[in-house]
Amino acid sequence: MRRWLEKITSPLKPQEPSSDWVRDELYSGTPTAVSRKRWSSAYASDPNEWERLFETKWTVVGDILERKLGDPEHKVVYDELMALLENMTNMCTLLMLEANSQPEPIIGPILDKFFTEQILERVLDWAIQLTDSLKSICQLAIIRIFDMIVSDSHSQNHCLLVHKPILNPLFRLCEWFQRADWRVTITENKKTSEAEKMFVLLLNQICTKLVEDRTLLHFFFHSDQFVVFTELIPFLYSIGDTGQLARDAVLLILSVSAEDQTIAEYVTERTSFCQVLTTGLSACFSQLPRRILGDGGERLVEDAYRDFLADFHSALLFCNAIAQTAHPDVAENISSYFYTGFLTNVIKPAFLQNDREYIGASMVYLQMCIETIDEPVLVKSIVRMIITERDDNGTLFFEIIISYVKGGDKTSVTALSLIDSLLKLACEDVMLALVFRPLLTNHSATKKQLSVIYKAERCGRLSQAYLDCIPVCMHRFQKIVSLSLLSSYMHSTRIRMTARAVQCRGWQWRYDGVVAGSFVLPAESDDDATCHVSISRKSSAGQSPVSMAPYTMNRYADGSHLPPSISISKPGPQPTTNSSPNNVHADLDEDGDFILPPIDMEDVSEEMTASKVMTQSTIDYMHISGLDGSESDDALPIRVEESSETDTDAPKSTFVLSGWRDVQDMETFCQILAKQEVKGERPPIEQIEQFITEKYESLISGGIEKAKEPTEKKVHSARTTNRLVVTGGFSIFNFPERSKLLATILEGVETLCENELPFNTELLSLIADLATYPQPLLAFYLFDPKEDSSEKHLLSILQSVQTRIDVMAEGIEDFDAWVEKGLETLAARAVRIKHESMTTAVSQKTRDDSTLLYGKSTMPPPGRRLLIREPSHQETLDDQTARRTALAAIMLSHLCQMLASIVLQQSLIN
Amino acid sequence: VCLDDATIKFEIWDTAGQERYHSLAPMYYRGAQAAIVVYDITNQESFQKAKNWVKELQRQASPNIVMALAGNKADVANKRTVEYEEANAYAEDNALLFMETSAKTSMNVNDIFMAIAKKLPIGPAHGEPTGTVDMNQPQQQQKGSCCK
Questions:
Q1: Predicted local distance difference test score (pLDDT) of residue A787
Q2: N or C end of chain B: which has fewer CB within 10 A?
Q3: pLDDT tens per residue across span A793-807
Q4: What phi and psi, each to the nearest 5 degrees, are found at residue A870?
């Protein structure tokens, strides 16, 4: 923490003969090192001299104290104060000299004098009676004295604070600061902030000591007080160094006490730390600008707001660091206030305003949160808001975001970018809400089709199909369509898909149409479209690519803010360091000729990759749910299960039907039956009855004897209760809606030629992230052509866009020039954004796709004004069409090559 | 609110008034063009606290900030402990707008915003809509209002 001292204090002043130097020292902030300098060289090794000097000084001080004691009416004058302070300071210097000179912690004569004469206590008693103007000077000096006591001792000796006669005055000093009236009566802001800064510095020094010697902790935490910690709370969000010192101190003290349950309880229940922490975030947010400049991808703020943006960002980082280092109970508490005090109180209302631009800005800020915060407990809060919060009409938060994609303006771009950042989390809950739940009920894939997703034949065929969608007019541009570009896409997508697969490793389901079995959902029976997904699922958020920290390096990232002896007990997830694809290897030559992989004439008649052993109950189930009444064997019966236990010992590839197989008695069977939901068109009653009878009989033969009549009655009641019975979860079948997100994406691609560049850039980036997900269900939806022509699919859309571009390109004069211009625009934008974003953290995503994603959106950089604008002269309609067509052509070409490489890489998934 | 030919959009921040959040208040009022300090007419202590807030704002907030004092809960005037005249006199001495309001019946709520709007200097600072800070409310919300 030395650097802090150096930072905030000015250089040493030359020695002055009079006692004025003391005053100057106190006012200018020169450290007490000055006094040490005067003394230590001459008296470094003579303890007797120290003692003698000490006695002299103490006499002076004692007299001054006595004077006031004897005559309460006596008004202390300035010079008197200065004399006392000077001598006190010197006395403490001597005290430290003595303490440091001893190899063991013994009580030397000077320290002893402090005890017996209760020096510090008496000085404080005296100081309280001063007039206001003198009081503030005195306070500052006393703080400095304590600072000396704390920080000037070498660590091998114990800290002097362990002694009550030293510690108690310190507590009193803290109390003094706590009194609100003190703050209000101070009229000069400068002095206030100076004293505050010194005070916080002192606390910070104490926390450093605590780290070095944990036994000190119980001196500060006892009898229902946690002195140092409580004092720091009001300063958490102070401006400048004070705030930073306070935050560092709090982090230190919480890391030291991270294992202590009692302290954790105290912090959460007896202090307002968590509330202030998260409310402070709201306060930071309130200072942010309501509009972001730029085109939505490129983001800028005016200079005046630059600091506020930095404050917000560092507040997020701090929250994250606390959640990472503190006791889990504290982290949990913070997470909960983060949700109520910040997310739902401030972020959510921001999205519900009727100000489109402000919503766009709020999207950027929310994206900042998502990209800055990686501690799972906090990410969980964010995810929770996104997938469970609703507006007054019942629209879910993420649906609101998606709805803003329409419009083509800046806010549409920020919406896409925000969604993209959600995709990058690779959180199963989010993906379930956005994509998989609708897909599970509304996809057209057969099991056969899903089973060949990773097969080379499909992948090769499809990748060729995507390459065929490249506009013909682009073929002649080597810069845009070439084997080498394709190779670099192959390389970069390989890396990204591997990373994505790693992120998805913790997921519960594979979404391959096979083991889609039981959803574990909490009981939310009043609302079947509720996405109250159990967020106990492991979120892979921690492994997502590191946040883009544009201007404040994450000072907490490597633990360097903590002293070396501390290891963060819960190491935060480290940014995934993938190898830099900037070193595009030349050894991609294996693909140099880009030969399609040989078609694998595997026996595709294999109906199911699932285990061929389907238990009887599985088939039974398929019967009763009516699914194979009208559909082939390839149908996917998926059922929501209300119990939370899955058959853990069931063979992996069978349907997970919890309970059916194990049903041994009639009662349970009937119970489960009663809870059965039957989808849509029901099979004839007789069929159901027959099945039930069969089952019944099999149970009977299993040795269970029941009277016929009661069972018949039960059967009857089971039959008549074939209405929707509310289960513990909610039914997949009652989710008729298709994925809004996927639909929106396809619409965006359809209008590629009309969209503006920033929109297309974000859109393609989003598709790029989505397409890297390995799940067959999604892969099929995105890549495979659909037989049902009423359902739009990407390939056909790309084909029609391709046609459109080619046709329009023929009609455009000097199309090549427009293409060149388009390339220039893209390149310039990319350079600008990279230049402005100051990505200190390696953001592999951007680098990977520099081929496609010129000008990937970034966080608002520190207030750089717009340097270059797009020419804002009035465009003719023809020119606008030409410009957009050229850009769309370039984008489409890149998109096709990227998709081709992704789908090809799917064959490498095992 | 609509004022003459102009539309004024209020970005309102409701600060938490409890003592523990006091240190965060500057972040709210620093950039604000207006502030409403609310007290409870049935609670003399809240009036004293309101005065402290006024003092703080006068000292720390922007010198041009438009300040209003609102005596809330006017709907239960029978339980009042702060007299209208007392508060009004204080407001006059300190150049504050003053109204007794009731959030429950909406009495004077619109009016106080209108009064603030009238007092605001023409043209917002930094091209931003005006920000108003509400002091002494327990809950935090953000509302924006625009006339139809």
A1: 80
A2: C
A3: 999 999 999 999 999
A4: -65, 145
Q: Given a cut of 60, is residue A719 above it in pLDDT?
A: no
Q: Which domain does B33 fall in, by range?
A: 2-132
How far is the C-alpha of B98 from the C-alpha of A384, rounded, in Å?
A: 42
Backbone angles phi and psi of A411, in degrees to 5: -65, -35
Q: Under DSSP, is residue A156 helix (H, G, I), strand (E, B) or coil?
A: coil
Q: Is residue B120 domain-resident? A: yes
Number of folded domains in chain B? Answer: 1
Look at A339 and B5; give whichever has higher pLDDT.
A339
Is B29 an 8 Å CB contact of chain A? no
Q: How far is B78 from chain A (nearest CA, A)?
A: 33
Would an 8 Å CB–CB cutoff place B129 in contact with chain A? yes
Q: Smallest Cβ distance to A283: which of B27, B141, B143?
A: B27
Residues A720-774: pLDDT tens digits? 444 444 444 444 555 667 889 999 999 999 999 999 999 999 999 999 999 999 9
B124 within some domain:
yes
pLDDT in tens, A198-229: 899 999 999 998 888 888 888 888 778 888 89
How confident is residue A680, by pLDDT bands cut at 50, 70 and 90?
very low
Output A515 or A221, whichever has higher pLDDT.
A221
Please say whether the beta carbons of A688 and A547 come within 8 A: no
- DSSP notation for A512-581: SSSS---------TT-TT-----TTSPPGGGGSPPP--SSS--TTTTSTTS-TT---SSPPPPPP-PPPT
Inter-chain touch A279–B128, beta carbons under 8 Å: no
Pairing of strands B66-72, B2-3: unpaired
Complex prediction ipTM: 0.85
> Would the CB atoms of B140 and A345 count as touching at under 8 Å?
yes
pLDDT reported for residue A667: 60
**Is residue A905 a contact partner of residue A490, using CB atoms and an 8 Å limit?**
yes
Reference A660, options A641, A683, A679, A638; nearest CA is: A641
Closest Cα to residue A123, out of A154, A168, A179, A186?
A168
List, as ranges, residues 30-69 from B with C-beta within 8 Å of A: 30-31, 52, 55-56, 60
Minimum Cα–Cα distance from A290: chain B residue:
B128
Contacts of B140 in chain A (CB under 8 A): 279, 282, 341, 345-346
Q: Say if residue A789's pLDDT is above 90.
A: no
Torsion of CA A282, A283, A284, A286, to 10 degrees: 90
Whole-number pLDDT of residue A156: 63
Q: Is residue B139 part of a domain?
A: no
pLDDT at A861 over 90: no
Q: Measured between CA atoms, how close is B14 to chain A, in angstroms?
A: 10
Q: CA-to-CA distance for A481 and A735, rounded, in angstroms?
A: 42
* CATH (domain of B119): 3.40.50.300
Q: How far is A396 from chain B (nearest CA, A)?
A: 19
Burial A846-861 (b: 16+ CB within 10 A, else e): bbbbbbbbbbbbbbbb
What residues does A573 pair with on adjacent strands?
none
B87 belongs to a structural domain: yes
Q: Is the dihedral of CA A874, A877, A879, A885 positive or negative?
A: positive
- List the single residue in B with minimal CA-CA distance to A303: B126
For B147, nearest residue in chain A (alpha carbons): A354
Q: Which two tokens stand for residue A122?
A: 């008496």
Q: Could you tell me which chain A residue has the CA closest to the CA of B129? A: A290
- Name the residue in chain B with its Cα closest to that of A340: B140
Is A341 in the B-facing interface, judged by CB distances under 8 Å? yes
- Least CB–CB distance from A287: residue in B27, B129, B141: B27
User: For A685-689, A824-828, B36-40, which range has the lowest pLDDT when averaged over its residues?
Assistant: A685-689
Residues 153-182 of A with CB under 8 A from B: 180
